[in-house]
Amino acid sequence: MISDLKGAFSRISNNNKRSAIREILKLTQNPEIISFAGGLPAPESFPVDALDTIVTDMMREEGASVLQYDATEGVKELRELLLKRYQDQGTQADIDNLIITTGSQQGLDLVGKIFVNDGDVVICGLPSYLGGIGAFKAYGAKMAGIPMDEQGMSATLLEAKLEDLKQEGIKPKFIYVIPDFQNPTGITMPESRRLEIIALAHKYDVLIVEDCPYRDVRFEGEPQRMMYDLDNDNHVLTLGTFSKIFAPGFRIGWILGPKDVNEKIVIAKQSADLCTPTFVQKIAYRYMNSGVFETNLKKTIDLYHQRRDVMLAEMEKHMPEGVKWTHPEGGMFLFITLPEHVNALELFHKAIEKKVAFVTGDVFYCDGSGTNTIRLNFSYVNNEKAITGIKRIADLIKAEMLVEA
Q1: What secondary structure letter does DSSP report for 207?
Q2: Over pLDDT 70: what percentage of the chain?
Q3: Is residue 181 packed enough to be buried (19+ CB in 10 Å), middle (13-18) or exposed (0-12)?
Q4: SS3 content of the chain, % helix, strand, coil (to 5)
Q5: Rounded distance, CA 239 to CA 104, Å?
């Protein structure tokens, strides 16, 4: 081994840190632990039998061709099918606006790669998805957090931040938002707020990166139009994924964006993986084209709806006064805010001893705040375990509040 290995690593490599959530998940491998920590879809939602038939038929009918390289932009049939799904919902786009990525996480990484120089400012919500923050910071981004209210990122505070930065001669590279069932809060941004943020993006000439991994998992309320559809000036690029509506192990995502941006994305992707695996793209195409996709998605939505309702009911029953939580209309997460004096990290270690796990909310705050918050996933754990787990967490919170009182 060379004498100065750290010196041999790149600045990006030395700045990168392990995912806090992935490290937490290592602590929850014990099957006795009831874990609300991961952003995991329910295994019951995976269409195992349908895929068994699809893969067999595909190999018999297409053979070696599905094992070959394909275009960096993605398998054409899959792109066309995804595009038609968007167009049926009113999206104005063509095939050159859509690129397949190896999961939406690669999409976030590629966005950071093509836009961010060391020291550039990227705006995100307080709190926001840890994987997005990490992807942008890896390229040297300075994250500027905008507090959220019950409708998502505050447009008033966003404008104040944009104006302050303008006075300092700083132009942010983009505004990162998760408008539907936001991770970690579960909040959905209404159309009026989306339009306010788009107007600010136009005013200050800043791009918007719209991350939409949960959009199709809606239980109640009215779907809100994508910011991509509300924009009329190529200020928005949107990320989508099959991970929450099909199978995360396939690692298929996509970017819907302006053609000039997508050209840069393609070049960056070519140096990353040449193309997303043809094999899984071809399976995804057949799965979507079979009609099973929409049927299975409805079953998944119904399952998650039921699990969310059970968790909310148990929280109403057991959580002490002074604890607040969100009521998501879909997605996979809800967010708990504890009294300010309660430290979620200390609570987490006590929870592990009681064989229940969650994610501390501070990891989603780019400024290190949120130490009294908790994210819970409701999609993965069955109802019986959820009832037991919420009772354990509530008891721990009660005890912690008594100690601090």
Answers
A1: E
A2: 97
A3: buried
A4: 50, 15, 35
A5: 6
pLDDT of residue 405: 56
Instruction: Return the pLDDT at 232.
Output: 87
Confidence check: pLDDT of 11 > 90: no
pLDDT computed for residue 86 by the predictor: 97
pLDDT at 24 over 70: no
Partners of residue 101 on adjacent β-strands = 253
* CATH number given to 63-292: 3.40.640.10
Query: What are the structural domain ranges in the chain?
Result: 5-47+294-404, 63-292
Beta-carbon contacts of 287 under 8 Å, excluding residues fewer than 6 positions away, are 47, 50, 51, 54, 246, 293
Mean of the per-residue pLDDT values for the chain? 95
Q: Rounded to whole angstroms, what are the CA distances from 60 to 6, 54, 131, 277?
A: 50, 10, 39, 19
Number of Cβ atoms within 10 Å of the Cβ of 196: 19
pLDDT on residue 402: 82
CATH number, domain 5-47+294-404, options 3.40.630.30, 3.40.50.300, 3.90.1150.10, 3.40.440.10: 3.90.1150.10
